[in-house]
Amino acid sequence: MVANGMRPIDALRAGTSVDAELIGVADRVGTLEKGKLADIVAVPGDPLQDIAATEKVLFVMKDGMIYRNDLDRGSGRGKRPRQACDFARKPLN
Question: Considering only CA atoms, which of 63, 75, 72 is closest in space to residue 84?
């Protein structure tokens, strides 16, 4: 979408809050707000400045668990398994 002229913020909204509104679930998902369900995707840098950052996922938080992307962390092999760790007990680093 950005490659076709859409601003990065609008592209991110198109895949989150706008979609939630269109399918009628915005009261439960689509934005990070107290009381809503949400999965969080962590990327390096600022996707509003460089939308390509969204292609380099560091970790995803889903249902309170962090799923790290260890495949892109300098192993050189790209074959290390992804690890799930309990956010409350284990730090990311």
Answer: 63
